[in-house]
Design a protein that fits this description.
It contains 4 helices and 13 strands. By secondary structure, the protein is mainly beta. Strand 1 and strand 2 form a beta hairpin. An 8-stranded antiparallel β-barrel has the order 5-7-8-9-10-11-12-13. A two-stranded antiparallel ribbon has the order 1-2.
């Protein structure tokens, strides 16, 4: 149940390694006893790191951040992320040309979806093989203890043989940040920036740098969106198992 995953489990933390700087000036009196230095502050005495006599409040503290070091939560979340999510709203604005004078914008041009072919859990996020109609890449899904919400990040590029790749845009990357208001498997509210993009006559003419920003949202993981992802993900076992559940549900 994606709703049940909007609050993560408590994380099991490991104690961080804390190292004090060796560049602390010796401005306090120190005495040497039994081969060790004793002082009220950190100091260097004859090039040797001295033992510290500091209050307990400065001792190593183990932080506790929900959403970190919780492989079990992210493995569970990954089960809800596999599948197809139709893009329901999409707006794009771009500028190109030597002086950025070619400015255009458009809304969604046709049926499109985000597709997670397979997903796995790690300590600090779930990660998925993430594609769209002509792009491929990776997406991560993580709980933010600072904003108390599920978030996502993605990085995609044009797949080999796609119109974008064949037109000379093989260096373009798509950097996405997103919020999942209902948790894993629910709608994704996203923003995407196109990086290192090119626009113009790709077959020998002049090519200009281009910048583009996209904003929109998807529906939840839904069997009705599967036709938009079958070509990209159909051969992947996790997606095939999700699709089989769709068939069994009808």
């Amino acid at each position: 149940d994606p709703q049940a995953m909007t609050e993560p489990h408590d994380a099991h933390q490991s104690r961080p390694h804390v190292q004090l700087s060796a560049q602390v000036s010796a401005h306090r009196t120190a005495t040497r006893s039994r081969g060790q230095c004793h002082a009220t502050v950190a100091l260097i005495w004859l090039g040797q790191f001295c033992a510290l006599d500091v209050p307990r409040s400065f001792a190593s503290v183990t932080p506790s951040y929900p959403g970190f070091n919780d492989t079990a939560m992210y493995t569970n979340a990954s089960l809800s992320l596999v599948g197809a999510q139709a893009i329901l709203s999409f707006s794009s604005a771009s500028a190109s040309g030597p002086q950025g004078m070619n400015v255009t914008g458009h809304n969604i041009l046709g049926a499109e979806a985000f597709c997670n072919c397979q997903c796995f859990g790690l300590d600090n996020f779930a990660y998925c093989q993430n594609t769209a109609n002509t792009t491929v890449g990776i997406a991560t899904y993580q709980w933010s203890p600072f904003l108390s919400r599920w978030e996502a990040s993605a990085l995609r590029y044009f797949r080999d043989g796609s119109p974008g790749e064949l037109s000379g845009r093989s260096g373009t990357s798509f950097v996405e940040s997103a919020v999942l208001p209902n948790g894993p498997g629910g709608p994704v509210v996203f923003e995407v920036s196109y990086v290192n993009d090119r626009e113009g006559n790709q077959s020998g003419g002049e090519i200009y740098r281009s910048g583009e920003i996209v904003r929109g949202f998807t529906g939840p993981v839904d069997c009705s969106a599967a036709p938009l992802c079958d070509r990209q993900c159909g051969a992947v076992p996790q997606y095939a198992a999700w699709k089989q559940k769709c068939v069994g549900a009808h």
